[in-house]
Each structure stands twice: as C-alpha cells, then as structure tokens.
Amino acid sequence: MSRFETRNFLPKNFQPKNPDYRAIAIHTFEQQRAMKTLGISIARLEPGGVDLAMDYSAEFTQQHGFIHAGIITAGLDNACGIAAFTLMPALTGILTVEFKTNLLAPARGQRFAFRATVVKPGRTLTVCEARAYATHDGVETLIATMSGTLMALAAREEAAKDGAPAPV
Predict the structure, then answer these.
(1) Which residues pair with 100 in a beta bridge?
(2) Which residues, other chains included, contact 161 with Cβ-Cβ below 8 Å and sequence gap of 6+?
(3) Parallel, antiparallel, or unpaired: how do β-strands 49-55 and 41-46 relate?
(4) Topology at the third CATH level for domain 21-162
(5) I want to staple 142 with a disulfide (CB 3.0 to 4.6 A). Which of 4, 17, 30, 84 is the partner?
(6) 79 near 18, Cβ under 8 Å?
(7) What is residue 129's DSSP assignment?
(8) Coil, strand, or helix at residue 64?
(9) Residue 5, CB half-sphere, CA atoms under 13 Å: how many?
C-alpha cells in the first residue's frame, strides 16, 4: 500500500448480485481488445473492487517519455467498469457514462496499478473511485485519480434466449 492510500479506499463489504460475478467479470475483461493491446491484466478482483496492472511500454509514451494520459485514463476507466460490473445482476452489461480524471504526477515507472472501488452501487447507475499508481525504482507514487459513473445495460431478450453473453 502506498503512502497515499488509506484503508478507507478498500472496497466495502459488498455482496454480489450474481454468484458467478468473478468468472463473468474476468470473461468481460478478457473480451476487451484494448486492454490486451495495452497489456493490462487483473491483479485482484472482489465484489466492488479491482486492481489492474500494466508494465511500462515505450509504445505508450508521450513526447517526454511518460505514459500518455490517455493510457492512464483508459486503465482507470476500465478499473471502475470492472469494479462496478462485479455488483451487477446476471445478464447485465456495462457502459461508462461519465468520468473525471485528475492527473497528479507524471506517469513514470516500470509498472502501473489501477485500483478501483465502488462508492455507491445502484440499479441503473453505479459511482466508483479509482487511483493510478506508478512504481519507479521500488517506490509507488499516486499519479492520477478518477471518479466515474457507470450504467447497467439490461440484456436483450434474444441474447438471453440464444445463450449469448450479455452486452459488455
């Protein structure tokens, strides 16, 4: 845990509405080609919370050699989405409807973590908070924060009948 993180940021004791939340959240994450392209993986997953991890890649840097803010924002957004998704009912999809990102320090490091937790789950809208950390020379630094709102998408009837996965 970094010197900036407090115990209050850890997910509350949420109960998932879907007993298969873990498998479905992992499947949803793995279907996202953008996350594969960025090399982002799930490091921790629990009801209402997720940690994602990414190694440094020069392919994702901006002109000063730092990881581009768009990459950091994508990791934070996805962490919020997966954290919210863990609390949604079966046959539900998810979309981000709003987020606010604060960039606090240059994204310089060998490894990056995106940690999200649900603040307030809802039937339609869920509010999450996320933090991005960079590990550089063994020191973890808070580099960005996000507040996001995510929307549950009800499964289409024909998808449920065909056994197709819910929209993601």
Answers:
(1) 147
(2) none
(3) antiparallel
(4) Thiol Ester Dehydrase; Chain A (3.10.129)
(5) 4
(6) no
(7) E
(8) coil
(9) 23
Q: Which amino acid is at 159?
A: A
Alpha-carbon distances, residue 68 vs 54, 96, 103 (angstroms) = 13, 20, 11
d(CA 93, CA 101): 23
Question: What pLDDT, in 10s, does the model give residues 6-56?
Answer: 444 556 789 999 999 999 999 999 999 999 999 999 999 999 999 999 999
Pick the closest to residue 40 from 114, 147, 148 (CA basis): 114
Distance CA 6, CA 2 (A): 8
Place of tokens 């590990």: 135
- Check the CA dihedral 28-34-38-39 and report its sign: positive
Phi first, then psi, for residue 38 (nearest 5°) are -80, -10
C-alpha angle 112-114-116 in degrees, rounded to nearest 5: 165
In this structure, what token pair is assigned to residue 43? Answer: 């490091």
Closest alpha carbon to 48 in 16, 18, 73:
16
Residue 100 in this model has a pLDDT that exceeds 50:
yes
